[in-house]
Amino acid sequence: MTLNPSRTRRPTIYDVAKSAGVSPSLVSLVLQNPSKVSEKRRAAVRAAISELGYRPSRAATTLASSQTKSIGLVIDDFRNLWFVDLLRGLESALSPHGYQVTLADSRPGENRITEATDGLLAMHVEGLVIAAEPSESMLTGTWVPAVVAGWRDGVPAGASLITNDDDEGGRMAADHLLGLGHTRIGHLSGSGGAAAHRREGFRSRIVEAAVEVRIAGESQGTSEEDGYAAACWILDHHPDTTALFAANDTMALGALAAAKARGLSVPADLSVIGYDNSQLAKSRYLDMSTVDNRSDLVGVDVANTLLARIQDPTLEPERKLIEPALIVRGTTARVPG
Amino acid sequence: MTLNPSRTRRPTIYDVAKSAGVSPSLVSLVLQNPSKVSEKRRAAVRAAISELGYRPSRAATTLASSQTKSIGLVIDDFRNLWFVDLLRGLESALSPHGYQVTLADSRPGENRITEATDGLLAMHVEGLVIAAEPSESMLTGTWVPAVVAGWRDGVPAGASLITNDDDEGGRMAADHLLGLGHTRIGHLSGSGGAAAHRREGFRSRIVEAAVEVRIAGESQGTSEEDGYAAACWILDHHPDTTALFAANDTMALGALAAAKARGLSVPADLSVIGYDNSQLAKSRYLDMSTVDNRSDLVGVDVANTLLARIQDPTLEPERKLIEPALIVRGTTARVPG
DNA sequence: CGGTAAAATTGGAGCGCTACAAAATCTGGC
DNA sequence: GCCAGATTTTGTAGCGCTCCAATTTTACCG
Asked: What distance in Å separates residue A195's CA from the closest CA in chain B?
């Protein structure tokens, strides 16, 4: 890598070949399968490459080999941090096979989820991970293996579904609160598919125990504000409530705010448990009880499914649930009194 | 978009041309400059495109036109949410010009920042935004316009620097605390370039006011744990401290934890102010005073600089600071007593 | 209607790389 | 020292698209 003086066009494989005194094919070979090239030429080619500061053109490689060794990940919003663990899981399982992950976020509005997907497909990704609310039509006209991660409603035909078992997670939260002796329990829900399953799992277990459950926010969003509003509703209409399960950690934060506003101390007066085991919940200050959806494991599984379907496209789409894990921290305690 | 029955290869521009009864060139023209094509053919081509479910190959387009209309954004870790606002700013300024943003994260370890950059360069991005601790050598051998956002140490030669004015932000925090009457003030710092500037701005203003400042964590990281440790150190060695300024919101969260552990109530006994105006600080529960580094504005500026340098590559790299803004919320108050 | 300029359309070369068959070179055994 | 077989290297033909010069069609005017 010398100082590449002039603003000349970037070096091509031909430049490298000429400089190393070999054919372009040989350079290509060095790039993809160095062991088939003699020691001498390999060294010469490598020297020429760094001498010229050559970087292979991804576009040309893709075009010529018609494979990109990359899979696309569609997320809805970078602020939803749960995708970070998913990404880590994906990468850990994918990189041993030489695959890379390309991200596209699909903010609502102009850049719809379909556009994000189209962009990825235009880049010839070999597989697609959809970590956003999927739309039925997003996959029409393509045969790229796809798997939906973390959502459950409207999975497009032909796509696999791999997610944590939200029903089971809801049951875990319920068992935890029941085990602490709570009998007046509220739930802050939301409108998405994941929230619905968490709600059903939670409700079913609570009802089994012959305990009443107050649910709010079923058709609302899942932001901190939504959690705050839902918690306020429950605490104002049922002031005897001693425990709240929120559909995610962010909503749980809203619940904490609602408790604080009413002078309730957590967990002495009110237990609060969230879902996701996000950074928030892990934080030393908040120290929040939660359910870990094991997004890392989901990621690994998604990667393996995709890899299998890339190899053998005739494979049927599957459907798999990952066991979540209860994380008990400092916002839940035995029922007061 | 019919049901594309067979797993045939994806349609090319030739398939579209044949189906529409025109030449491939015409199809290409429709794609990039529809107004130069007669109404009739345009409609025919468009019909064929959706009929076949055709999506142009990005690789081929790139190769043929040698321009990608995309710029690359290198971030260090998806968990550092400050890049989200930067991204929004970038996109808002870039999309009117038809440019897209491609992200690459550079986790420490195997996937070094240089690799992330190389990946982006291999994709022929026309410009590079580095929102991570830059390394001197990352740009050798390339002439792609680059700008560093948000860091200040070791900006590679030839790259512009655009960031919020961390010195000024530090001064704002200092003025705020001094204005509230505090005279025993601590600062939780970190080892990065940004932290150093925040520290210097803060210290200079405090010292001007002839007030003593206790600084901890100068050579540590900037996580919540680091903030906790630094806050513990200050509170234990200087129990009379009434205000803490943290180098970022996450560290401020650690400070809150330290205060809680000592039974200090915030802001009655101890004022805490962070930096970044992250989601955390905005949250209703935490309601944290902070300094907003206006990453959105930084993003817009970065985009415009890049655009200008793409158009005219002879432009000199610039250096610009964006004015931050003080955000007063509920964690700072007048000095007790 | 012929003629001309403008508008619309087309053919073909080439972007940088890989795949694959063909050619060149190297082994070692007799 | 020669030859079969293995190993290494090289030509050639695309991959799917854009660009541009050349060609065809259209519109308009006298």
From this structure: 21
* Secondary-structure percent of chain B, ordered helix, strand, coil, rounded to 5: 45, 15, 40
pLDDT tens, residue by residue, B140-182? 667 789 999 987 777 888 899 999 999 999 999 999 999 999 9
pLDDT at A260: 96
Token pair of B77, please?
A: 């870790």
How far apart (Å, rounded) are the C-alpha atoms in residues B87 and B77? 14
* CA torsion through residues A183, A216, A290, A271, sign: negative
What is the model's pLDDT at position A127? Answer: 94
Per mean pLDDT, which of A92-96, A179-183, B75-79, B189-193 is the most reliable?
A179-183
State pLDDT tens for residues A118-156: 889 989 999 999 998 887 777 766 778 999 998 777 788
CB contact (8 A) between residue A59 and residue B62:
yes
Closest to A24 (Cα-Cα) out of A56, A67, A68, A69:
A56
Q: Is A217 exposed, middle or buried (0-12, 13-18, 19+ CB in 10 A)?
A: buried
Integer Cα distance of B228 and B140 in angstroms: 39
pLDDT at position B93, please? 94
| Record: contact B84-A81, CB cut-off 8 A | no
| Beta bridge mates, A100 | A70
A41 touches strand D (CB under 7 A): yes
Residue nearest the C1' of C9 (CA based): B26
- Strand C lies under 7 A from the Cβ of residue A53: no
User: Tell me, what amino acid is at A119?
Assistant: G
* Locus of tokens 């943003």: B101
State both tokens at A62.
């893709």
Residue B120, CA atoms < 13 Å, CB-side half-sphere: 34
Burial category of B107 from C-beta neighbours within 10 Å (exposed 0-12, middle 13-18, buried 19 and up)? middle
